[in-house]
Amino acid sequence: MPRSRPCRLPVVSTANRWTSSACCVRFGERYRFNGFLSRPMAAAVRSTTMSESTKVTIRDVAREAGVSPTTVSRALSKPGRVNLETATKVREVAERLGYRTKNLEPRQDDALRGMILTTTSDLKYSVFADFVDGMQHPCIERGFILLTALTEEKRNLERSTIMRMSTQVDGLVLTSSRLSDSTIRKAAQVRPTVVVNRLVNGVQSVVCDDRPSLTAVVRRLKALGHESVTYIAGPESSWQNGLRWQALLSACQKERMRLRQIPGPQVFDEEAMRESYAAFFDNPTTAVILFNDIFALQFLDVLTAHGVSVPEQVSVVGIDDTTAGTRSTPTLSSIHIPRGRMGTQAATKLIGKLLHIDDGDSTPIVSYSTFVERGSIGPASAEPIV
């Protein structure tokens, strides 16, 4: 008499756990997460009691998943019309019950974890927080968790973060990345990737064109009688820094204004900023444009410490249009960048790729900045700065 084989129940892992070293905190603080998409063991056991010959209907799937038949239909044929958690639950139930339809095809989103990683330099600067805030809304709407890793302007930290996390998340949004184009392209080969404030060939980009607003700044300064401008640059690794310099160079040439560049600090550090600004007094100009509002606000303090009045002796313009600039004395003229909208566009584009509802257009998404004039600029002064 042949041996009877023991009945084996299907084994389904309920762990699906991972450890993240970056979830809205700096590296070094570790957290554990449980994958909310893992299939319960009890469900696997129940599936063994069903007869394979039983014809499963869409109502059976709806009843088991706790949703309406209409929701089941949408989840299986048009998953973009329901949130991620519902779509995944319905597809898992349909698969477990043996429900088949000609529209049910294997999809990559079957394995989605429901998590997106964004990297950013530092949330203490409101600019980066605005981008992240914009990303959060479409993530919540579609049932994704947004994880934020702080890279502190360090390439090695950004690279290692992406390498360690890319296997644990569904996609990446890289904000003002300092990585090389080739490194970003490699990351995009592992996980769907969108870059913000950066153009990378072959990778979806969301950028802001500052050229029209910088041209408007130069024209306004020219109208106020300024003949020379100093640009205090940002980090050398910043893609935006190079574009802003080229835009200013072109605008000043058209307006026949003298333009010089002073290397700015490579990190957002007050002492480094003061050291960079010292070079301005060797050959001062009546107008100064700085890489961002952080630099500009610190420069206002330095000018005050040297007894230089703004805008009576020097006109100052920042870039980013932060809240802090509206509270300074004088209020800071700046260039407004629609950061929240850009963050939303980046997350929406990435989620569209993940859920296969994207239109497939990889053309860069371009927004435009605007010049906001406030109290920090005025007519050029003939009084020399000592």
From TrEMBL:
InterPro entries in alphabetical order: HTH_LacI (IPR000843), LacI/GalR-like_sensor (IPR046335), Lambda_DNA-bd_dom_sf (IPR010982), Peripla_BP_I (IPR028082)
Keywords: DNA-binding, Transcription, Transcription regulation
An annotated Gene Ontology molecular function: DNA binding
PROSITE patterns, per the entry: HTH_LACI_1, HTH_LACI_2
HTH lacI-type domain mapped to chain residues: 56-100
SUPFAM superfamilies associated with the record: lambda repressor-like DNA-binding domains, Periplasmic binding protein-like I
Protein name: LacI family DNA-binding transcriptional regulator
Annotated organism of origin: Bifidobacterium saimiriisciurei
